[in-house]
Amino acid sequence: MIRLLLVLIGLWFSPPERVPLRAFYLNGYGQGTTYSITYYAPDSTVTPDDIARKLAEIDASLSLYVPTSLINQFNRSPHGVVADRHLRVVVRKALEVYQATDGLFDATVEPLVQAWGFGNQKVATPPSPAAIQAILPQVGSDKLHLRGDSLVKDRPGVHLDLNGIAQGYTVDVLAKLLEDKHIRDYLVELGGEIRVRGRKWPGGDPMRIGIERPEANDLPGAGMQQIIQLKAGGVTTSGNYRKFKQWGAVKSAHLINPKTGYTFQNNMISATVVAPDAFTADAYDNALMGMSLTNALAFLGRHRDLQAYLIYQRPDGAVADTCTQEFQKLIFHE
Amino acid sequence: MMEFPRRDFLKKTGLLTGSLLLNNGLLDAFGAPLAAGKLRIAVIGCGDRGTGLLKILQDLTDKFEVTGLCDELPFRLRDAQKIGGTGKAKTYTDYRALLENKAVDAVIISVPLNMHFQVAKDALLAGKQVYLEKTMTYNIPQALELVQLVQQRPNQTLQVGHQYRYSPLYYRVKEMIKQGYLGKVTQIDCRWDRNGSWRRPVPEPSLERKINWRMYREYSGGLAAELLSHQIDFINWAFETHADEVFGTGGIDFYKDGRETYDNVQVMVRYANEGMVGNFGATCGNARDGYLFKLKGTKGTISLLVDEGVYYPEKDTLKQYGTVDGVTGATKITWDKNGGLPITTGAEPLKDGSWYALSEFYQAVMQKKVPDSNVLTGARAACTVHMANQAIYNHTIEKWRPEYNFA
User: Fold this and answer.
1) Which parts of chain A sit beneath pLDDT 50?
2) Does one domain contain both A186 and A332?
3) Max Cα separation, chain B?
4) Which of A115, A203, B177, B396 lies 20 to 30 Å from B258, alpha-carbon distance?
5) In angstroms, rounded to a whole number, what is the distance separating the alpha carbons of residues B398 and B383?
6) DSSP one-letter string for A16-47
């Protein structure tokens, strides 16, 4: 009897005829890179204008490249600013990751990034040890506080740089925009950071995400390093293989240790992180790049919501990879 | 404690490893000078090319010291002496006197083409190391003789100045061809166009033939020898092949100014073993294309400038990349708006090809190794250029002969 009732209820709630889902593609420029969105819906309910408006809204809050942005106002201000929702949410996450990584991920590293020439201003030479020592007192997220609706700082020289997590945050915001329009099958990518949910239609195949093979060349490798299949979540990658500067014999990668002021010198080449959302993944991929392989694996052992695929260099110079057990299950084998 | 499966990385790292090896190779070639010290070098022929190389030598003072300058035109010697790094150089108007100077280990030969063979031969016989401008020789018999001479003198280096292919970009392109990025290449388009007379200013009329030697067939192989030879040489080297049949045409079609070499030429080359057609053209009457070099294969196209390259995958190749729905990477690859991927070779901007070429010349001499642009590859290119000019001027189809198969 109960079983019959359930079947009846099931029939009651199932739509009389399912409208077939079609693929829609949106591509464009944003945040100094490109985005591409694929979604499956009965009709094209999201337009490029929707995306552009959302990106502009985020830029107005978080972009270092927009002079009037809230983050730039904060950086210029001696005390702080009234934060909007984007800034509050992203800073809260940044502080959380700062704590969790014991300061390896630090959103106040911006003055060091600028000094090393990885910011929006070019520099002719690497910073001197004295210059680095002078900058270090301005660095440290412990000088940063969310109080009510305000974001305040302890020292006027504290500068924020949220580029390390803003792209992950942005793809989550764009995913929310799709979700609000009842879209449940999509892949949002911006600057190589991804948020995915659902399947491809028609056919119902799972979405596949390629992890780019690390190369110094800007070429589409002979393929992908790995391909993973993911039902829902965020996937982001941080790596040292493409952005670096050569100062004579010294090669400096673009990730800088907020504690020492110098670029990370370790064996990590790239870290791909899978997390429930892209925001979280993006926050931790940089931090993993700052750890030795041993520390990174220990860290992942303590944070079971993070899955990661790490490419590193062995002492003999050979390139090797490893991943967490759950990540292994995501890898697609042809 | 979690267990992390560790696998031996990556049977699939071909491309990465390839590039790393290449970069290391380049580092070796252009690295710190050997203990043996500097090479004392002299420039024979201080025209545009000779002085151009002198300027490159200013950036290579850890490897070379300029100890001699030679030109039969005194004003050219004076101009050359104004270039930095030439302060210690003795000057000569007769290259044979320069060759007697024991303080000269090596010579750069940048004289008119008809003189290449004689000066190179005399320099080798005088015991000098030789960097000989392209095209290696004026004709095929000279190429054959120079090959024999160099082979008899294993302690001496002869490098031919096809400098463009010494750029890491061109090495990378050769590697990409090998790795199959282009699939099967069937067509290669090469142009080197300008809108100008290709003449140099002449201070007094009696010097016309000495300065504008490129205009006269007695001295010059014309546009084919001076320009197209670079691309002809690159294709030989990159595909390890040679021309089997050469068709050509041309004329003095715009600059009817007394010149003898053509101001407009077109050459078609059949590469029978490779199943490829090469189209080589140069005109003095249009500058729109300028330098154009396109290698077209079933999987993609590479379009090259002297210091820039772009890879354009064919539609089906792109589909292979499309088997994933998204790609995560450290710093996203951005395709250009024409669907191409810029080919880059590392963090540093590329230098002039001559810088790399002269750096390898130094290494080749010091380590007694055969340079990549050597007498054999130089001879293959010289033969093809000579065949091209025969085809252009005589309206014949020129065929490769077994005796050109140098080894």
Assistant:
1) 16, 218, 221-222, 247-249, 251
2) no
3) 89
4) B396
5) 11
6) SSPPPPEEEEEEEEETTEEEEEEEEESS--S-
SS3 category, B115: helix
- Parent domain of B207: 166-348+375-404
From residue A237, give the alpha-carbon distance in Å to each of A282, B330, B354. 7, 5, 39
Q: How many domains does chain A have?
A: 3
Same domain for B86 and B111, yes or no, is yes
Say which DSSP state B206 is in: G
First to last CA, chain A: 46
Hey, which residues does A244 pair with through a beta bridge? A253
CA distance A174 to A286: 22
- Residues contacting A113, CB < 8 A, separation 6+: A119, A161, A254, A256
Q: Are residues A179 and A233 in the same domain?
A: no
Q: What ipTM, to 2 d.p.?
A: 0.77
Return the SS3 of A118. Answer: coil
- Measure the CA–CA gap between B169 and A205, rounded to whole angstroms: 40
pLDDT along chain B (407 residues), means of 10: 35 31 37 62 97 97 97 96 95 98 97 98 98 98 97 96 93 91 96 97 94 97 96 96 97 97 98 97 97 96 91 79 70 64 73 95 95 97 98 97 90
Distance CA B121, CA B104 (A): 16
* Tokens at B109, concatenated: 């030969």
* Closest residue by Cα to residue B44 from B95, B88, B79, B120: B95
C-alpha B363/C-alpha B369 separation (Å) is 8
Report which of B29, B21, B27 is spatially closest to residue B364, judged by C-alpha positions: B29
The DSSP string of A149-166 is TEEEESSTT-----HHHH
Summarised one tens digit per residue, pLDDT across range A251-269 is 455 578 888 988 877 888 8
Report how many domains make up chain B. 2
Closest CB to A208: pick one of B16, B324, B333.
B324
CA distance A310 to B237: 39
Between chains, do B334 and A301 touch, taking CB under 8 Å as contact? Answer: no
Q: Are residues B97 and B205 in the same domain?
A: no
Name residue B175's amino acid.
Answer: E
Q: Which residues of B touch A192 (CB under 8 A)?
A: 327-332
Say if residue A320 is in the same domain as residue A279: yes
**Angle, CA B372 vertex, CA B369 and CA B373 arms, to 5°:** 115
The CA dihedral of A190, A86, A109, A28, to the nearest 10 degrees, is 20
* Beta-carbon contacts below 8 Å between A and B: 153
Q: How far is CA B74 from CA A226, A261, B66, B212, B364, in A?
A: 66, 58, 18, 16, 32
Q: What is the distance between the alpha carbons of residues B399 and B388, in angstroms, rounded to a whole number?
A: 10
State the amino acid at position B334 in one-letter form. Answer: T
Partners of residue A237 in chain B, C-beta under 8 Å: 328-330
Residue B258 burial (10 A CB sphere; 0-12, 13-18, 19+):
exposed
Q: How far apart are CA A192 and CA A270, in angstroms?
A: 13
Domain assignment of residue A187, given as a range? 20-64+162-202
**Matching residue, tokens 């030429």:** B265
Residue A105: CATH number of its domain = 1.10.3980.10
Whole-structure pTM value: 0.67
Of A36, A187, A242, nearest to B330 by CB-CB distance is: A242
